[in-house]
Amino acid sequence: MATCPNCGATFSDAFCRRSACRRVVKRPEGSAAEESLLRHRRGFALANLTLGAVALGSLALWLAWTPMAWTHLPGPADTSATSEIENSRPQGATLVRLLPDRPHLPEVALLTEEGIRFYSAAQYPEACQRFSDALQKEQVNPTLRQNVARCFEGWGWQTLRTGKAEEAGLLFRQGLIQDPESPPLLTGLALAAIHAGHPDVALEPLERAVAAAPDAEATILLARLYDQRDQADRAAAHLRHLLERSPSHTEARRLLDKLERELRVEAGYRKDEGRHFTVKYRGPRELEAHRAVMESLDHVYEAVGREFNFFPAEKVTVILYPEERFREVTGTNHWANGLFDGKIRLPVGALQGRARERLLTHEYAHAVVHLLARGRAPRWLQEGLAQHAEGIPDDPDLHLPGGMTLAGLEALLEGGDLAKARMGYQISLWVVRDLLQRGGMERMRELLTRLGRGESPAVALPRVYGLALAELEQQWQSALGG
């Protein structure tokens, strides 16, 4: 038997059935997290092992990707993803056992001990139930309140790692009921919002987390969020504060240098807000190009959206530069006519005639792939899909003299050799279209989703297409004459 925390009725099922209780609900078909949330919506908190660095790594990969340069040839590989965060797994806050000098509350002690056992086995629904029941019996006990918060924290991180961002956000919010200023819970809530496609919602909890306990990776994440919102001044301010505390932090220094360079170049730029894009340009000389770009962007949004069956709500920033300023800001090779690094950056001289819409389509496709895969799509998949969306024709004379592996293809795209880069682009397009023939865009979307959850291509490709990676590579090698 249990007691409904809302109306006080006792019941044996998981949900209160009293008609007077506002929490009369049907048993959901969903996960254990959803079931427990319905059970404890008003007063209990869910928590998780504090794997904040793991989540920050996922977030960094989502926000800090390899920029995609275009002209059918790649720009430099400016890899910003922080793999060290992704691989680190710090231990969470320890659940404190109830002190043994409380013989008047044996049931509280028993529930706490059971909760600890479930928690240690990562059985979070059962653990959070025990801790919540213990807290109900002694609501003024801060140790019990922290146990509930930490348990929901752990459950939230576990849920987020499985790709259930909306559910994870609910779990983190439940934890915050018991510990409103917990940096790990606030950071988890921010990450869940980002992975659910609501980066604007992440700013407030992440600001609170950084204010409560300054953390380097959380600060960098916050800076990247502001940069993506075209608020480079706020991003730079956070990075400067971080560098005051940690002057040798190389990632913060690199990002601040980049932002300050962009702020210098883009000082005085005008801004035009459209439905799906924000376009920035310098002045009268770029006015004509700006007008043409604005006319093309809505069509590009619809065309690429239909191709991927994905129409993101967040706006993408497009910046138009004079040629020399484009090179200064992006550092790309001379053959690059565009770059996507979270913002679409274009030299005005490349936006002439039919090339304008093709270029916008290519770079916006990078943005869409980036969002769908949370920044985890390999370069060959990014470039293949961008070229496919652009409508580049296949090369009928494409031939491989040697072996064919995705690792080798990635190496072609990351090098600075022009001939190798050209070959890498052609092969990437061919491989992507082969995958589309095997399963269409539906399976391609599934592949991108799996990559976004952290699966490697070697794991995700067989799960989506039913063939081991080595077998796929052998088939591609045979088809291309290698």
Q: Describe it for me?
A:
The chain is α/β, with parallel strands linked by helices and 482 residues long. It has four domains: 1-30, no CATH class; 52-264, Serine Threonine Protein Phosphatase 5, Tetratricopeptide repeat (Alpha Horseshoe); 270-386, Zincin-like (2-Layer Sandwich); 391-479, no CATH class. 60% of the residues lie in helices and 6% in strands. The protein contains 20 helices and eight strands. Strands 3-7-8-6-5-4 form a six-stranded mixed β-sheet. A two-stranded antiparallel ribbon has the order 1-2. Helix 2 (52-63) runs parallel beside helix 8 and helix 11 (232-245) packs antiparallel against helix 12 (250-265). The chain is globular. The model is unreliable at 1-92 (pLDDT under 50).
Topology summary:
Layout (H helix, E strand, L loop, with lengths): L1 E2 L6 E2 L20 H9 L11 H12 L4 E3 L12 H5 L18 H15 L3 H14 L4 H20 L3 H14 L4 H13 L3 H14 L3 H13 L3 H14 L4 H16 L4 E4 L3 E5 L2 H25 L7 E6 L1 H8 L7 E3 L3 E4 L6 H19 L6 H12 L15 H9 L3 H35 L4 H9 L3 H11 L3
Helix pairs in contact: 2-8, 2-10, 4-5, 5-6, 6-7, 6-8, 7-8, 8-9, 9-10, 10-11, 11-12, 13-15, 15-16, 16-18, 17-18, 18-19
